[in-house]
Amino acid sequence: xxxxxxxxxxxxxxxxxxxxxxxxxxxxxxxxxxxxxxxxxxxxxxxxxxxxxxxxxxxxxxxxxxxxxxxxxxxxxxxxxxxxxxxxxxxxxxxxxxxxxxxxxxxxxxxxxxxxxxxxxxxxxxxxxxxxxxxxxxxxxxxxxxxxxxxxxxxxxxxxxxxxxxxxxxxxxxxxxxxxxxxxxxxxxxxxxxxxxxxxxxxxxxxxxxxxxxxxxxxxxxxxxxxxxxxxxxxxxxxxxxxxxxxxxxxxxxxxxxxxxxxxxx
Length: 266
What we know:
By secondary structure, the protein is an all-alpha fold. It has 14 helices and two strands; from the N terminus they run H-E-E-H-H-H-H-H-H-H-H-H-H-H-H-H. It has helices spanning 4-13, 31-36, 40-72, 78-84, 87-90, 93-103, 110-117, 132-157, 161-169, 174-185, 187-202, 206-212, 223-232, 237-262; strands spanning 16-17, 26-27. The relative contact order is 0.15. Residues 46-258 form the ABC transmembrane type-1 domain. This is ABC transporter permease subunit.
């Protein structure tokens, strides 16, 4: 009810457009889609969305996996670290964005103060068109990897210890154990996290909305933010729904490829 109904409702709404002749919306068929395919703003948003996901998804998966390996290690005080590593996840998105906006401020932000203290130039970060998207990738990664690492940690703890003992007896090094034991046994966890990260980041728009409003120069204007603006700023629910349907199809296509190439072999 809560997943399929909105999809079909969005598909239906994408066939309508605001009518200035009466209070109801007019049926326009595929016109919203044809307008999108000739709209440079849509193509710019699509490019930003793909660019954002090309970088943020593998970065989050790799760092989350490395963090899980650290959390799974039998080190002194690792229990303390397991507690504090989850703090960024517990912080709400809006609070995290406000804090990072303060820290990355070009004038009085602590990050630029540290750069100046090291003799380096101040950076625009969120206020520069060449750095804004990268800054949001960094913020999203800081916020998310602790959460995804929990799933990897659960997968690591399911790997039988006997496999490591047997490979150790055979003279396998730690790297060989990782390649021959850990990674193959983690295929399902990797697939789950990769798919979940992809879906989550394709739908992500809160940091862009809170921190940059899609700017500077549309450099952070992802499809979800463009859809939000269409619906709530321009009152064009038909265009907004068409964007969401295209985004849904794009996400499903990428997820299908991920299942195909990451599916665990029995």
